[in-house]
Amino acid sequence: MAWKPDLRQLGLPRSLPALVLATGLMASVAAGLQVERMARAKDQERFNQAVAEAHVTVSSRLQTYLAALRAGAALFAANGGEVNRGEFRAFAERLDLPQVYPGIQGLGFSARLPAVSGPETEALLQGLGVPEVRVRPAERRPEAHAIVFLEPMDRRNATAIGFDMYSNPIRRAAMARARDLGVSAMSGKVELVQEIDRDKQAGFLIYHPVYRGGGVPRTVDERRAALRGFVYAPFRADDLLEGILGAREASRVRLAIYDDAVAPENLLHGPKPGRATLMSSRFSTVRPLEIAGRRWMIDYRSTHALEAGSSRGLALVTFLGGLLATVLVAAATSRQVTARLQAESEVEARRAAEEARELLVAELNHRVKNTLATVQSIASQSLREGRSAAEARETFEARLIALSHAHDLLTRENWRGAELSEIVREETLPYAERVAAEGPQVRLPPGTALALAMALHELATNAAKYGALSTPEGRVSIVWKLPSGRLDLTWRESGGPPVTAPAARGFGTRMITQGLSRQLRGTVDLAFKPGGVVCCIEIPLAAEAAPLAAE
Fold it and tell me: Is there a smaller number of Cβ atoms within 10 Å at the N or the C end of the chain?
């Protein structure tokens, strides 16, 4: 008789539950961390997409405002550089500024004057139809400009009429750049003359030059001599961004806009620095935006709305699920070990029963580890396929249910195997009226039964989503034969929509084509024919299926 060691002396039975518990705990932690990493990568991608959308929206809307300024300059060019207040007002009303250009404070014209006051200035203002305008500041200076038109003429805009924007260095720099280059130019951060209430906002202006004769002179000196004035638009930054983004700004990203560089004194729009709305975000990025010769730095931060759509919660679910399974396995192992220790103290007549119990413990440990490995692989691959959290959860649950059905079949037979016809019936039960199955009786070992059940589930799921089972006329034929010690099974779809081969293969397809080949040492031919998918599976009947392996 072969020598058998007393495991109680080695201490192995007492430590086995702790070993199972430690192994399961490490596997659960590893699975949870993996899901967390995948969820973070997906959230980062969603954040980057939201930033790109907001960036393009802001840029394209500002380009629309520049087009409105060019249209105003074209009005002057078409009238030989002479436009009165009534004509300008009619032009602005046709633009429908509040509806078409939300966020713009107004559209105006600043005329270049011979002097702050005097007969020539009065004559020019008279010709523009605004003889009542008084230029301010009133001090004499080398070059004077005055806002003569500004629409719509509301309470705020009325206070700006007559103001010489050229007297302010920040505005003057933008006006000079527009004049010399003959293009639109944006100013730096300013406080608009229209800020007459206590609730003040940062602002900026965009200027487009208007020259005598309508065109743009060729040289800088000619442009300076021919300058007639500027069509311009003032903006209150907060109103502008609310008009551009509306509710979108409060959805997935929140932004702060800085003039030229990220610094508190350059903040045009957004929460004040240091507030929790900016400091508590998981994701952030700063992107530059060049508009009309001026650079903005836009600081994007993620919001709670983006967090609400995160799949990070699946990491905790995965960990807790693995932990629960581990505790159950450890408890079962502990009970079995306790029973074995008690049995080893009994008489020799009980030794045969004790050996059977030992085999049961090993089998239980083997089956549960395989199940945990399968669940971990399904969870990892379901999340890795680029679906939303809801779709990933639905796919994950469907695959677990398919695995559960296969386990139920094996459990009813005490894990001695399962009939292939029963496996086919369970996995195609929702579509029984449209599935025809035919083949001889064959009993498959547990591993083969599990692997084939998961493969049939993936084929049925894909057929229901994209293939023959997605239309009422579609049919599926499942035929198997037993030539010379192997199983030949053919899945054939017909009557469904035209089939095209996918550009990339997901976990389900890889599990069918690669998993069965590796686990059961069989061959799989999955063909995406125009008339329907055809899958031919050949499996040696002596092969035992291994756990699903992560691809």
Answer: N
Task: Give the sheet arrangement for strand 253-259, strand by strand.
Answer: 267-269, 253-259, 294-302, 284-291
The answer to whether the bond into 142 is cis (omega within 30° of 0) is no
Residue 384 lies in a domain: no
CA dist., res. 124 & res. 146, Å (int): 11
Token pair in block for residue 23: 């192994």
Q: How far apart are CA 283 and CA 44, in angstroms?
A: 7
Q: For residue 233, give the DSSP letter.
A: E
CB 438 within 8 A of CB 479: yes
Find the CATH number of the domain harbouring 453: 3.30.565.10
User: Which domain, by its residues, includes 508?
Assistant: 404-551
Average pLDDT over residues 383-399: 58
Domain boundary among 212, 242, 272: 242
Closest by CA position to 380, among listed 459, 309, 307, 311: 311
pLDDT band of residue 551 (cuts 50, 70, 90) is: very low
Whole-prediction pTM value? 0.54
Residue with tokens 């502990």: 334
The reply to whether 377 falls in a domain is no
Reading the block at residue 415, the tokens are 């894990």
Cis upstream peptide for 152 (omega within 30°): yes
Residues pairing with 257 in the sheet: 269, 298
Closest CA to 288 of 54, 48, 55, 49: 55
Which of 188, 222, 242 is at the close of a domain?
242
Q: Residue 124 belongs to a domain with what CATH number?
A: 3.30.450.350
Name the one residue in this structure whose structure tokens are 């002179």.
217
d(CA 402, CA 405): 5
Number of residues in the chain = 551
The rounded distance, in Å, linking the Cα atoms of 270 and 263 is 12
Residue 9 belongs to some domain of the structure: no
Query: Identity (one letter) of the amino acid at 289?
Result: L
Buried b (16+ CB within 10 A) or exposed e, 37-62: ebbbebbeebbeebbeebbeebbebb
Q: What is the pLDDT of residues 213-256, one digit of tens each?
A: 878 999 999 999 999 999 999 999 988 888 887 755 457 788 89
Residue 148: its H or E element: strand 144-151
Backbone φ and ψ for 511, nearest 5 degrees, come out as -65, -35
Q: What is the pLDDT of residues 39-85, one digit of tens each?
A: 778 888 888 888 998 899 899 999 999 999 999 999 998 887 789 99
Report the domain count for the chain: 2
* pLDDT the model gives residue 376: 55
Q: Strands 284-291 and 267-269: what pairing?
A: unpaired
Laid out side by side, the sheet with 475-481 consists of 435-438, 475-481, 486-494, 532-540, 523-529
**Is 151 within a domain?**
yes
Distance CA 20, CA 7 (A): 17
pLDDT digits (tens, 9 = 90+) for 294-341: 999 999 998 887 777 666 667 677 778 878 888 888 788 777 777 777
